[in-house]
Amino acid sequence: MNALSPSLLDRRHHGLWSLWEMLKLDSVRFVGLMQFTAQMQVLLGNNPAVEDENAWAKMRENCERAAQTCEAMGLVLSAKPLHSLAVICQADARGWPKEHETHFGDAVARIRDELEIIVLLELDARERGYFEPSAPLFGSAFSAKFISGGIFELDEAAKCLALGRSTAAVFHLMRMMEIGVRAVARCLGIPDPVQPGQRNWGAVLKKIKDAIDTKWPTATAKSSGDGEVFDALYASLDAVKNPWRNATMHPANKYTLEEAEHIFAAVRGFMMKVAERLDENGDPKA
Predict the structure, then answer these.
(1) Are 125 and 110 in contact (CB under 8 A)?
(2) What is the pLDDT of residues 227-237, one digit of tens each?
(3) CA gap 127, 125 in Å, rounded
(4) pTM for this one?
(5) How far is CA 163 from CA 167, 190, 193, in A?
(6) Residues ≥6 apart with Cβ < 8 Å to 183
(7) What are φ and ψ of residue 190, in 5° steps?
(8) C-alpha to C-alpha distance for 261 and 166, rounded to whole angstroms
(9) Residue 88 region, left (φ>0) first, then alpha (ψ -120 to 50), else beta?
């Protein structure tokens, strides 16, 4: 009777679930629930021995776990008869009451009905790597330094890629680039833009270029240290401005999955380089 492992349920008790966690249907949890129903049907036919207290205790435990699994999957109506079944599966039960079969039959019927209104999404290994990465996609430095907005945009972009929403993924990647641009500008001592016209990428990049040329006016100064770092960062920003960021703002432009993954890799390289030198507030200053 080990259809449902406690490990499948433990994580829902260690904090609030995110929206994505609530929407995701764990295939292992789903299979465990199906195994439980199959094993209970076998027990119904075998009429378990009254004197076997361990069997009744295990049955009661598995009913509760199955009910909790249903709740975790959003099958709230299916959970109710399972909770009731757990209550009457006592170690001192006498025979196999008809109500066991009634509650179990209700649970199976409700599970079937509720699953009919749930859409199951299948992710392959590559897609799951975006949706539920085993390590920070942009490295630990980015995760530690861009916690206000960068992590959110990365998570959204990655999940859009996992679900095949390539144009939406590029949109979030460009929002992330804006966070990177602002961080670089702050590091160079450039105030955040106030007027709408000042938020244009071209205007911001011009200020960044002017600041770089002021701090490191010669080719020699730009060949080492911070001069080299910021000169390289500016080149990356200028390259991405026209073909990607400006085009993304126009509804007529759409991106294939291959294009979105290419942009994802380029933004990843840029943001990881930024995170090596500074955080989202531009610290330490140049």
Answers:
(1) no
(2) 999 999 998 88
(3) 6
(4) 0.70
(5) 11, 38, 35
(6) 146, 274, 278, 279, 280, 281, 282
(7) -90, 125
(8) 8
(9) alpha
